[in-house]
Amino acid sequence: MNNETLIENEARAEALEQAIADQDLVATADLLTGMGTTEIIEVLERLNTRERAVVYRLLAKDRAIEVFERLDSTLQSEILSGLQDEDVAAVFAELNPDDRVALLDELPASVARRLMLGLSPTQRILTATVLGYPQGSIGRSMSPEFVTAHPAGTVAETLVKVREQLDDAETIYTLPVTDAGRLVGVISLRDLLRAEPDERIGELMSVPESMGAEVDAEAAARHCADLKILALPIVDREDRLVGILTVDDALRILESAESEDAARTGGSEPLRRPYLATPVASIVRSRVVWLLVLALGATLTVQVLDLFEATLEQQVVLTLFIPLLIGTGGNTGNQAATTITRALALGDVRPRDVLQVLAREVRVGVTLGLLLGSLGFVIASAVYAVPIGAVVGLTLLGVCTMAATVGGVMPMLGKAIKADPAVFSNPFITTFVDAAGLILYFLIAKLVLGI
Amino acid sequence: MNNETLIENEARAEALEQAIADQDLVATADLLTGMGTTEIIEVLERLNTRERAVVYRLLAKDRAIEVFERLDSTLQSEILSGLQDEDVAAVFAELNPDDRVALLDELPASVARRLMLGLSPTQRILTATVLGYPQGSIGRSMSPEFVTAHPAGTVAETLVKVREQLDDAETIYTLPVTDAGRLVGVISLRDLLRAEPDERIGELMSVPESMGAEVDAEAAARHCADLKILALPIVDREDRLVGILTVDDALRILESAESEDAARTGGSEPLRRPYLATPVASIVRSRVVWLLVLALGATLTVQVLDLFEATLEQQVVLTLFIPLLIGTGGNTGNQAATTITRALALGDVRPRDVLQVLAREVRVGVTLGLLLGSLGFVIASAVYAVPIGAVVGLTLLGVCTMAATVGGVMPMLGKAIKADPAVFSNPFITTFVDAAGLILYFLIAKLVLGI
């Protein structure tokens, strides 16, 4: 798709949205037939619940299923609630076990049970295996449908087996090699095609990378990404193969993990659906709790200032620098926190590195502090008075050092106590640094100005 | 890999790092032989330049190349600078054209030129095609090595062709179908295996999704991810096939894009290498410019306060709420900015949606403002005085509304003027909201308290 084509699609999407807004069903249906699945999905993700239900019902049957399979489970469940029972059952049966489980989590228990009963026995068992693993584990997002090879089997035999199971398996490009259920190797279809028909899998297979089904889904997905492989075998505690994680599922897992981190560092809960498809009320809900918590934390600053009110009355000029000082502290803290949160997510830094991180951030903080501090000293001395300049400069040095250190260590503590590091980063740090920075400021002021 | 195994690896990695710290080359070499490529890479990413060079030279030849291929280009260039010319040439020749180009961007022009001349003619041409596209375009990250099918060809013929080119092509699992160089379709290896030997590709192929080589790399990678496909054909303006983007490369592109967004929203430049492998000096560099810019912006708040110094002298109590008020404003702004920045990155929101976003964020802001405002009014009235409570409450209402609106719209403006939306988000908003919030605060105070 060239930039030109991108623009065409844009235009078509706009026309469609217009038709929907005008409730012109004929025009809508016409436009839909001319559009690709991806385009349709992009539009659906921008509509409100009612509009989405209408548009979905206008889709041709197979197209409808294609589209449904690729929607987020939250949107899927909404659409289902608007369909006839028999259509629901049909759509549900079409899904892959892993996607089906994601959807089940969104549905009311009664509906979920009814849908499960509607499945074919095999599909029900497959779905059950996935359902058996705890939320957030990779077992929940893996596909239990895979083709395996046997070490004693020949290339020819294996290729036949692959051909037979072409339609059931999630991927045929990476084959786990199992012996009595245990994962003993892995072989790519590329290697199979390269080899002689009578060669034995056992001689061709390579050492398998794998993950335990109980491992955190994001960690497994990140591992799959780092390995640059198309599929990662998932095993149970006895190293028996229970599923396979395909790279496209890994990608989906990572994307939602990134969204979560982004939201948390911004001090809100992640939206569980595309922004424009989220009701304003849920957006408010995703933010209000955090905002209240942080505001409550900020009352600390009120108390600190209350404490030093006498000092302020003597030197109102000190007030002028309050936002600058705590702002700079907040920025320095956020810089450190964001870097470390990201490094933790990527596995570049581990909780045991806490001392190394501490040492580095102190050095960074001091350097930044000296720079900003001397600058602050010069300017504030010039504009106001040298003592004031000294107070501002020294405070900047102190605040930067403290902020960088706290900002670097907080996320690691979060990780260490198994909380989301992102939660422990930016917003909290700002609140903490604000209060601590103010205390530092007034202590230095009292010292330097002798009040 | 089970959690148990993960812990084992942890232990091994720690032992290795110890051996390296002790400069015990024998122990280091022993430990290395027992480790998987991924483990070794994880360790390398945690060492400093000198240590990394030592460890790399201890690796067996093939292992060394395996490892090298999967390192970031920044680390690759460092390692190269420590190797003999002939080794450099050998390693360089082993790389895929796209990885090679990424590395060339890191190397001094003279070295780059020499290395290019060392390549085989074919490899040199392939590398040149990739080099021909602008930085940041998908053309730069695509692979120019692909197997194509012809619509008139039979399944049997195509499978033979695939077998012949097994080793050169980046992927054989998705085959672009071209006619006279033009992309006319795409067929998966799965479909080929499913079909009868004498069927024609033209009847089996499906409509191709593709991207123009000039398209932004992140957009293309995101598209590849949304489609849940293994490879996306890349075409030139005349729709001629010029390369292919594989999902694992798409993943790599997305990861670095995420890191960049994370850093920018945190108010710093992205580190171009793993945190522990980054010298403190470069970390400082990645933060200092932003910090200075923001501090400069914050001097606005000093001027605002200077403006209202008289008011402050009359009512020192107003000072107490300054950090709380601007803090809350900053948080509300960041929440909105982070949500919208993310939505833009995911393509959930487009610049043309600016009015819709504006409308939504105003509503969100007012709702949050009413909540926090009334709360602030009650508390401040109880602790201090009703007029003070009124000032605080009204300011909170105003600040939240303004912050959410600004926070929501700023990233979209950023995107519209083709800048990185993340840059225009959190740090800038905080600075802006701080100053604007203070003005609002004092105007309301003057009005309510009649000073």
From TrEMBL, chains A, B:
GO cellular component terms given for this protein: plasma membrane
Domain CBS: 142-204
SUPFAM superfamilies, A to Z: CBS-domain pair, MgtE membrane domain-like, MgtE N-terminal domain-like
UniProt xrefs under PROSITE patterns: CBS
Listed GO MF terms: magnesium ion transmembrane transporter activity; metal ion binding
InterPro entries: CBS_dom, CBS_dom_sf, Mg_transptr_MgtE_intracell_dom, MgtE_N_sf, MgtE_transporter, SLC41_membr_dom, SLC41_membr_dom_sf
Pfam families hit by this protein: CBS, MgtE, MgtE_N
Transmembrane segments: 362-384, 390-410, 422-444
Membrane topology: Multi-pass membrane protein
Keywords: CBS domain, Cell membrane, Magnesium, Membrane, Metal-binding, Transmembrane, Transmembrane helix, Transport
Localization of this protein: Cell membrane; Membrane
Family: Belongs to the SLC41A transporter family.
Assembly information from the UniProt record: Homodimer.
Biological function: Acts as a magnesium transporter.
Protein name (record): Magnesium transporter MgtE
Species this protein is from: Paeniglutamicibacter cryotolerans
